[in-house]
Write a structure and sequence with these properties.
The chain is of the alpha/beta class. The protein is built from seven helices and twelve strands. The chain has helices at about 15-25, 35-40, 55-60, 80-90, 100, 145-150, 175-185, and strands at about 5-10, 30-35, 50, 70-75, 90-95, 110, 115-120, 160, 165, 170-175, 190-195, 200-210. Helix 2 (about 35-40) links the parallel strand 2 and strand 3. The protein is globular, with a radius of gyration of 18 Å.
Length: about 220
């Protein structure tokens, strides 16, 4: 049995699938966060349930007790970016991702909140895809998506949270990645891009940092 604690953010269809996979793999310390108590009650496997908004819950949770915990996002939003905006408060505001900063990246598609999704896949991925064993879509690619993004970070300020496979078709990141991201931005100013990506898929947004909390900055 795995001692690794995992928190799933979202109790919808993807959250239920995540809970099933992790339970079947022997994870015992699993929590699920969702604002819908009925959705939590309908979970098909045992878990610690927390009624609340996932982003808000993450932004209020801090301390040494989180070390070693993994986060599995199953919401249709960029959880890392939303969390970062919540914890930085008036020190950050949403910004446009510079089009030239992402030009040429694979599978580029805009999101309603001025971000972009990215993908190396040229079609639907199987639900049991395991990036640790390779990927049919990426074998001919010179770089994984995190590598492609890191090549851009030399020219454009970019912070990347790497999503790791916890189960076939299921990724997450350690709480320490959030700590590191926040620490990296504590003294930064200006526009910074924030991306979350596994080997093949990712999402990227931008924010404008002003540690003085002045929202008068112009794009």
């Amino acid at each position: 049995m795995s001692p690794k604690p995992v928190t799933i953010i979202g109790a919808g269809r993807a959250g239920k699938r995540a809970l099933m996979l992790l339970t079947e793999l022997g994870f015992q310390r699993i929590s699920v966060v969702d604002p819908d108590s009925a959705a939590l009650e309908a979970l098909p496997y045992k878990a610690t349930t927390i009624v609340g908004d996932g982003v808000g819950w993450l932004s209020q949770k801090a301390g040494e007790e989180n070390r070693g915990e993994w986060i599995v996002p199953t919401l249709p939003v960029h959880l890392v970016y939303q969390w970062l905006m919540a914890v930085l408060g008036d020190r950050a505001r949403p910004a446009q991702v510079p089009p030239e900063a992402v030009a040429g990246l694979p599978g580029l598609a805009g999101t309603p909140d001025h971000g972009f999704t990215l993908s190396l896949a040229r079609g639907l991925c199987p639900p049991d895809c395991d990036e640790r064993k390779g990927c049919a879509w990426t074998r001919a690619q010179p770089h994984s998506l995190p590598q492609a993004l890191s090549l851009r970070s030399g020219r454009w300020p970019l912070e990347l949270v790497r999503s790791r496979a916890l189960a076939p078709g299921l990724g997450g990141f350690p709480w320490s990645a959030l700590d590191r991201l926040k620490n990296n931005l504590e003294s930064r100013q200006g526009r910074v891009m924030v991306a979350t990506a596994c080997r093949c898929h990712g999402v990227i947004h931008a924010l404008e940092l002003n540690q003085g909390g002045d929202h008068g900055i112009q794009d």
